[in-house]
Design goal:
The structure is a homodimer of 253-residue chains. Chain A has a single domain, classed as Rossmann fold (3-Layer(aba) Sandwich). In chain A, 40% of the residues lie in helices and 24% in strands. Chain A contains seven helices and nine strands, in the order ββββαβααβαβαβαβα. In chain A, helix 1 packs across helix 7. The mean pLDDT of chain A is 94. At the A-B interface, helix 6, strand 9 and helix 7 of A face helix 6, strand 9 and helix 7 of B. Strand 9 of chain A pairs antiparallel with strand 9 of chain B, so a sheet runs across the interface.
């Protein structure tokens, strides 16, 4: 892990860009936000929130930073994210690009999206991204001042499911039911055991409501909460940022 | 409105029992909780939360008081409740008692509960309770230190729907989708326009999940949030008390 730039923001939060990996072709960019040292509880290492996103860190940075700064200033959490495979400056994944084109074509034609297209779009992303997030976790938890426990939130829900199931350091997950989920991941969701909060946009034009409710039902954890809000995919109400933070505050201790 | 007793609780909250109405046969008992004067913002009258319940104030008092004290000490809200028609010390309503017996019989026999039974159980309660809650509101808002706006929460959801639709002083409603709702009230729900939060217990043994989701869908308001939690009818997680308070804090200003 190498830091490539750092900025002290006006609320005291330190925003650092980093890259993971030595090989120029496979380097993974990421961002880390840490609370101003005087806002953290004395000497206790900060819990860490891994902040998911749909891919494209440059475009997503303002929204991610806004969440991370809320977490840091109000709760003393550190937050970090890494670029997804095939997104931003990283090399494209031709099979995923093809599946994305097939998906767009089906939606524009008003046709149902086939399981094959969903699998081709999401499964390779999960397969590649989850080990990368785990590697990022290794590097982040080795930094001074960051101690875990770790929460995961947002982004591609299938990545969150797999990560929360296979990575024992994830202690709580706040997921957004806003994208297609392969049947295999719905099955994996049954094995998830950490406390879970799920956001659902009730009128999400690109997301089947019943499929999202079925997924919520499938999660195997004993403690799960669904927050459904009126509105479309991008209309998540701003008060859910703090709801998410409070969910993590209950579980990351 | 006559106060019949008062207690200063150890957190400074003033709990007062009252009755509404002059006629001994039709007197309605109620309870009012108000914040210690030094915890309220200087001179500003307190917003008021009307706290619903399933009937039987004596039995419900500890739970209601616990919520009211949280609202008063953490948010400076006043809270009040009145006994339901046919419950507690009030005269029984024979038709409703009959419907309740029919309901129990159907459930014990594993039969579907007919629309007729639901209507007979709930509609008379709504017809009588809603004017009573409005009369209570008249009396409560005439007291010094209580100024509104007013929120309604919990209890029999059909009463909450009707009240929030017909009573313009209700500015926000936090309802519990935990009981049978007559088709006529689902239709009324389409006319509800205030901000709304709905609690749903995902595995509520006495409540049809799909009916509750359909009701949430029917509400006509532009701002609505569903909080679904794993567990049965009585298993609402304790963190939802503060979630409800924060919902009111956003809207009762």
């Amino acid at each position: 892990m190498q830091f490539t730039s750092e900025r002290r923001l006006d609320d005291g939060v330190l925003e650092r860009d980093f890259t993971l990996g030595r090989n120029a072709d496979s380097r993974i960019p990421g961002i880390l936000w840490t609370p101003a040292s005087d806002s953290a509880p004395s000497s206790a290492p900060a819990p860490l929130i891994l902040v998911g996103h749909p891919g494209g860190l440059d475009r997503m940075r303002p929204r991610l930073a806004s969440r991370a700064r809320h977490y840091a200033t109000q709760y003393g959490f550190a937050a970090a994210t890494v670029e997804l495979p095939g997104s931003g400056d990283r090399p494209r994944l031709p099979a995923v690009e093809q599946a994305r084109a097939d998906l767009r074509r089906a939606i524009q034609a008003g046709e149902p999206v086939s399981d094959e297209v969903v699998d081709a779009l999401v499964l390779p992303l999960v397969e590649q991204a989850v080990p990368e997030w785990r590697a990022a976790l290794d590097a982040l938890l080795a930094l001074p001042g960051i101690g875990g426990p770790v929460g995961f939130e947002g982004g591609v829900i299938s990545i969150g499911i797999r990560l929360a199931v296979v990575e024992p350091r994830i202690a709580a997950a706040n997921l957004f039911a806003g994208s297609f989920v392969p049947a295999a991941l719905v099955e994996e969701a049954r094995r998830l055991t950490v406390p879970l909060q799920v956001l659902l946009q009730w009128d999400d034009e690109g997301n089947d409501r019943q499929a999202a409710l079925d997924l919520f039902d499938a999660f195997g954890t004993k403690e799960k909460t669904l927050h459904a809000n009126l509105g479309g995919h991008t209309g998540v109400p701003s008060f859910e940022i703090d709801n998410g933070a409070r969910f993590f505050a209950r579980h990351l201790k």
